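Q: Hi! First time asking for a complex rather than a single chain. Here are the components, and I think there are four in total. Is that enough to go on?
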Amino acid sequence: MAYNGEEALRLAFEEKPDLILLDIMLPLLDGFNVCKRIREKMDVPIIMLTAKEAEVDKVLGLELGADDYVTKPFSAREIIARIKATLRRTKMQDRESEILTCGELVLDRGRMELFKGSAQIELTYREFTLVAFLLQNAGYVFSREKLLEEVWGYDYIGDLRTVDVTVRRLREKIEDDPGNPIYICTRRGAGYYLRRPS
Amino acid sequence: MAYNGEEALRLAFEEKPDLILLDIMLPLLDGFNVCKRIREKMDVPIIMLTAKEAEVDKVLGLELGADDYVTKPFSAREIIARIKATLRRTKMQDRESEILTCGELVLDRGRMELFKGSAQIELTYREFTLVAFLLQNAGYVFSREKLLEEVWGYDYIGDLRTVDVTVRRLREKIEDDPGNPIYICTRRGAGYYLRRPS
DNA sequence: AATTAATGTAACATTCCTGTAACATTTTGC
DNA sequence: GCAAAATGTTACAGGAATGTTACATTAATT
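A: Yes, that's all I need. Here is the structure of the assembled complex.
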């Protein structure tokens, strides 16, 4: 929450929010200028709030790069709906760029593909989900319980050792020497983690 | 599970749950007030349940500090998704505070790593758990009994001297001169503590 | 319906962590 | 200064944790 245009700019760059609701009528620096200056540096969704219908034309005409606009007075329901819709739209675009990397490994969530260097590695669903989760949280150690919850599903019921076997199969495909893994490593007594390149 | 607002308050403070699902329509004390009073004392994620769309505005307008809201009727899938998303968000914030430092020592709980300056120190599970506990309570002296309870587990049964040996192994790895420790120190007749830099 | 692939379970193998015990050293109390 | 208590130190065996493989079962495909 910012109470004037300059604070809005500062907060936007500092906090890197997922989405910005931007009023036009602001002290110090109006919404038009704030929007323009944010757009110069960031690719964050912006929804503009206008008090007067007359301003709508201006929002559209100036090609500010706002993703949507809402005219006052608006209901909470309406603004929430706009926010959701905007996030859904922008997430879609993100999906294509949902690529995780760690050293030689490159993972494309959308296409469900994993590459090691230029070579594609064929993975099954479980294997892919597991490596994707570890990659997304590279460096962090996860217990078998946590992995079952996150990868298999919170309501999955089964043996903890299932994780071990899936890890083994992953190593078979990913590691040069599955006996001495350099990607999917074990922290004895704790669980597994994906080692980041040093 | 609480069946009225006052019970909800009592339970929240007693049980310290990870997350609260809070209906608005409650006997004795409604959800708005429960939420407000919990927020005054605790920083627990709260998801509000509303029967009427009209209440949504109120939830948002009152700035109760609820983390999310769901309108009835909702599917199990939806509420689970909201819970997960909320927990993920709040956990993320925890991540950064998972790092403990004391002088040259830097410990990362999530990664289960300990650094002394820029050099990483390889620790076993017990060693890590022990130093993490001492670091989190730097300066405070703990008896062998207390350490067994906190680090080994309240239900652990074994020799008190086990602590000594683990401390010895830790010193071997952490101290420049394990014979004259400057980090993990002994308070004769009492126990061990981690000395804070002077 | 037959075949193939995916995945969980179980059983066996291996590693290396960790507690115990035994002895050494330091400190305390008298 | 001596005995006793507390702590330091070391070695080693047992076992818990993990690795590995095989097989059964389920799901997907032909």
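A: Chain B has seven helices and nine strands. Let me know if you'd like any chain examined more closely.
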